[in-house]
Amino acid sequence: MKAQAETIAAIATGAGAGGIGIVRLSGPSAPAIATVLLGRKPLPRHAHFCHFHDEHGSLLDRGLLLHFPAPHSFTGEDVVELQAHGSRIVLASLLDRVIRLGARQARAGEFSERAFLNGKIDLIQAEAIADLIASGSQAAARAALRSLDGEFSRQVRALTEAVVRLRVWIEAAIDFPEDEIDFLATPQLIKDLAATSVRLDELLAASRRGVRLADGLHVVIIGRPNAGKSSLLNALAASDRAIVTDVPGTTRDLLRETIDLDGIGITLVDTAGLRESDDAVEIEGIRRARDELQRADLAVLVSTDEQLEQDLPLLAALPASTARLVVHNKIDLVAGAARREELEGIAHLWLSARTGAGLDLLAAELRKAAGHDEGNDGAFSARKRHVNALQRASEHMCSAQGALCEQRAGELAAEELREVQHALGEVTGDFSNEDLLGRIFADFCIGK
Ligand code: GDP
Questions:
Q1: Does one domain contain both 206 and 221?
Q2: Digit-coded pLDDT (tens) for 64-82
Q3: Strand ranges (DSSP E) for 242-345?
Q4: Which residue segment(s) compose the domain that 145 sits in?
């Protein structure tokens, strides 16, 4: 455990009218500060009713004082929590009081950072705290909680153990080359290596879903004028899980509206304007529309049976990796039934934005794309940083397999496996540098 000399303090929650506010302290002098405030030594994990006074004896507030002695606390250090009324003024003066008693104002994320440095949580779990606070939907919150519980970490650690076992095996085989049996060619080793590689790729796929869950899904609705894009967006926005946000812009702004459907951001892009232009306002609109298309996770092309042939090229403007979905709108005009069909790997939905028929099919598709579908109970939240590291691990794993199976190069395979292990360690924070830690914890809010 890394002992920190300084005691930190911050307002952890509060400032809401009527609620409680918490000033949290962590560090070696927290118990002494608590003793001054309470007038006696606080009992461990005991809620003391306490009159909080300033240094001149004036009453600041009355509330509860709790002491969680090291190492059985969130940070692993001595932690003291002062619960007061959720007034900004009261909490600020309480914070001022404990700072005068020797604590210093905590930086953003410093409590979580200390919990990480003291081995109470790993980096994935620390990041999950920030993701939980920032979660924009119930599914995202649940996923962040699962990561905080250690679900993602457990899978990374299990994989690391498997990689270490493979390394030990290969390195032992290299060390005893004179043995009669060629250990590097044992079918079991080849099989274990392949199985570990499959597990790694499954974890990579799960973490990609985790990023989508945590970040929300960016959906763009595209199509020519009058296809019914606005009607569709309005129909979706009528759902009580949607938050409608106004995107200010000019009448020629190509991004017309954005809604948030249970954590899924849906933006309407009018592709009619995606053409060359000399007009400054229009050029800016086109640039924004193109940006929006580039960063979309899913594009919904709104068309009709009649128009589709001519509209399909609109999908060609999207990056190849963008998932897509085709909506055949206005089925009420042709007395068609709402339905879903998969054509050449792309889902096609027949619906009517006007009558609402088939909208449930679209909502289900959006939820699935965002990782919110029913079968996703074990989903955990993840970040791009994790995906990048797992991607690197997967590439080294491939090289390790190649080195062993094709070249019989044990040294090379062992070296590649070392890289796999290193990349996995970066995910959990077992291998990390101060720069990375600084960046991660700076994104937290103060008091966490
Ligand atoms: P946008 O230009 O793509 O945003 O299209 P709008 O949403 O403004 O719709 C264009 C026209 O088509 C409007 O008159 C809508 O009322 C109509 N419309 C949209 N969806 C439907 C639909 O499902 N059925 C019918 N009959 N009309 C629709």
A1: no
A2: 999 999 999 999 999 999 9
A3: 242-245, 255-261, 264-269, 298-303, 323-328, 339-343
A4: 133-213+381-429
